[in-house]
Write a structure and sequence with these properties.
By secondary structure, this protein is of the alpha/beta class. The chain contains 14 helices and 13 strands. The strands form two sheets. It has a seven-stranded mixed sheet, with helices on both faces.
């Protein structure tokens, strides 16, 4: 340490003793100050470099697997809804997430596509309905799976309960067993003369056996005769519609499935060709020319599913995320189709509709 300067008045510069004190102490003080400043500078620089290096480290890019059935164009609105939901929560493609889309042309292709997503080690699989959830579940018991429009997750066994799903699967349910009963009731309200109705259902959709029981109970209560018509592929559509006039059916109800929602235009064309009114659970079918629909807003459910995905990416376990139910339902009527079929729908019924397409 440098010596302390003597207390008292500073002697004149001409005195050698004082010169030695001044010229010995001052350089030492300057040197000590410079050394302290240098050390502080090094410490400050090290901190700055550390922060800069941390800031420059690329954030982890999350990989979301998207498993679906049918042509991509048929689900463009749902893809848009999911992207919007993720974006609202700070997750943007090309920035901090990558969505791996896998579109199956048939149900049989789903298991291999699900296995492919598992091999890619995606962080979460989005499988909207029971048709896609089942192959994803079989492919992995550990990768989180999120659904948005599952018809009956408890009844099928994909979750233990709505409040405590358990396992690696969770999401939102559309309550199909309730919806199909309401569809039949609304169809009868709109067209009271209809007494023989065909039920188009899909044997490859896991939720449909339970849905059929619900629609049968509703038919019995309404005094309506039901004719069960299975359709597993697009190729089955022509034969199914051809049998309806032979069975003297007045109309038909479509039990929602990925197959029927992915082929709205073809279904509408066949219905018009055979002059048969139909009721659906998906708005997309009515926008394509179907007569009417009652069901949940699927885009809203898909947008809400984004929150599940984000929570899982941030560390929450699927087992800790309760399954939510659809809260927004829509009645949509295509008045143009009604006129083409020669049907008169009462004004009172049209006033109940959330949307009338003219």
């Amino acid at each position: 340490m440098p010596s302390k300067m003597p207390v008292g008045p500073i002697p004149p510069v001409g005195k050698p003793c004082c010169n030695r004190v001044l010229f010995g102490v001052v350089p030492a003080l300057v040197k000590a100050m410079r050394r302290r400043d240098f050390i502080k500078g090094i410490a400050g620089s090290a901190t700055s470099w550390s922060l800069a290096a941390h800031a420059q480290q690329p954030a982890k890019i999350a990989r979301i697997g998207f498993l679906a059935l049918g042509p991509a164009a048929a689900q463009s609105s749902r893809v848009k809804a999911l992207r919007a939901g993720l974006r609202d929560l700070g997750y943007v493609e090309g920035k901090n997430i990558v969505i791996e889309f896998r579109w199956a042309e048939t149900v049989e292709q789903l298991p291999e596509l699900a296995a492919e997503l598992v091999r890619m080690k995606v962080d979460v699989i989005f499988a909207s309905s029971s048709t896609m959830v089942e192959p994803a579940r079989q492919a992995s018991k550990t990768i989180p799976i999120v659904f948005a429009t599952h018809a009956d997750p408890v009844g099928i066994g994909h979750v233990a309960s709505l409040a405590r799903p358990g396992g690696n699967i969770t999401g939102l349910t559309m309550l199909l067993t309730d919806v199909v009963a309401k569809d039949l009731e609304i169809f009868k309200d709109a067209l009271p003369q209809e007494s023989r109705i065909g039920i188009l259902w899909n044997p490859t959709t896991p939720s449909h056996p339970r849905a059929l029981k619900a629609v049968e109970a509703a038919g019995a209560a309404l005094g309506v005769s039901l004719h069960m018509t299975p359709v597993s592929t697009v190729e089955d559509f022509d034969g199914a519609f051809a049998t309806m006039p032979r069975e003297r059916l007045d109309g038909f109800l479509v039990v929602a499935s990925p197959l029927t929602t992915s082929q709205p235009t073809r279904l509408a064309e066949l219905a018009l060709a055979h002059r048969l009114p139909g009721v659906y659970a998906s708005k997309e079918n009515v926008e394509a020319g179907g007569l009417m629909s009652y069901g949940p807003d699927n885009d809203d459910l898909t947008r809400r599913a984004a929150l599940y995905i984000v929570k899982i990416l941030n560390g929450t376990k699927p087992a800790d995320l309760p399954v939510e139910q659809a809260t927004k339902f829509e009645l949509v009527v295509n008045l143009k189709t009604a006129k083409a079929l020669g049907l008169k729908i009462s004004e009172s019924f049209l006033l109940r509709a959330d949307e009338v397409i003219e």
